[in-house]
Amino acid sequence: MSQCKLRFCAVAGLILIASPAWAAPLLPGTSALAAAEPDPLGGVVIAGPLVTPLIGAAFNATVTSWVYQGDAASPFPNGLTFVYQVSNLGTSTDAIGRFTANGYKTGATVWQTDASFQPGAGLLAPATMDRSNNGNVVGYSFVGPPLGPAALRPGATSMLLVVQTDAPSWTTSIGNVIDGSIASGPIYAPVPEPASMLLLAGGLGVGLLRRRR
What we know:
By secondary structure, this protein is an alpha+beta fold. It has one domain: Sandwich (Immunoglobulin-like), CATH 2.60.40. The chain has helices spanning about 5-20, 195-210; strands spanning about 25, 30-35, 45-55, 60-70, 80-90, 100, 105, 110, 115-120, 130, 135-140, 160-165, 170-180, 180-190. The strands form 3 sheets. It has a 6-stranded antiparallel β-sheet with strand order 1-9-12-5-4-3, with no helix packed on it. β7 (about 105) and β8 form a beta hairpin.
């Protein structure tokens, strides 16, 4: 076996040891091998499906998003689960390498997340998942051999990408598909609970009243 192959095996082994392939809290500034889990488990769809067309320089895609409540597999019993599915349409001329979802940080609140994907026959699994340093963006990457499956080629659809959270409510944020070019559009993401929003609005109202006086 050549030195190159030995080095690759050693690096791949370290990646597998450092990033076990099961669902785990995805903390800000971290990445892991994508975890296959039967998530969401049960629950009720309270929003969606929201189907968003995303058109890049070399691809035509759609992202479908849902919000679940009562996901029995979630480590956050009172939180919501956000589910995404990316389709690269057959009219595309390029693959899609990555999907990201913004909105996992609201003000000073960084929502807890547990990321995974739900296996599905004939669908493409992501290779890795990650979170930005400030916690706002959760990403899934589709990469080529030898470390993972092929990119999301024209005509292919991803497995369900699942983000379980401790967020009590939802809104629309921005989703992105990326590969050379980038296309963005609305998806579902966390938002503060209504009571918190009312308190914030009340505080702003008092501030304005004081300024008028």
